[in-house]
Prior knowledge:
Helix content is 36%, strand content 11%. The chain is an alpha+beta fold.
Amino acid sequence: MNPTGLYPESLCPIARSLDLLGQKWSLMIVREAVAGATRFADFRAIGIPSDILTKRLTSLVDAGVMERRPYREAGERARDDYHLTPAGMALLPVLSALVEWGTEYLPIPAGRTLENVTTDTHEAVHVAYVNDAGEVINQDRVTIQTVPAA
Length: 150
């Protein structure tokens, strides 16, 4: 049974997104970029092996999630910074939803964790469904269905 009616899987936006973002480390790179990381060494600092980081950054750039910007420090060779594109920044709600889900269903007993907050007041915020009229819709009223592609 295929409740969404999508054949083949390549037509499903979830499957297509996971082809890129489901690779180990990809969303962690985006998380670090949202937090301000731009340089290879910044991303490498979270424990990603260099060869894997190179592949993931290339995939994210090729997909339009990140862009390379050349820079050169005095006396150094030219290198690239990596910055989120608008498509990359549009992943913030995805990361925020994962923060909420992971905090709720995979809690850690102690230490530090992540929380979604506003940039100015650091007030806690939550991911929500909002209709075109701006009304917040309860999750039990939301489903995923097939519609004609745009």
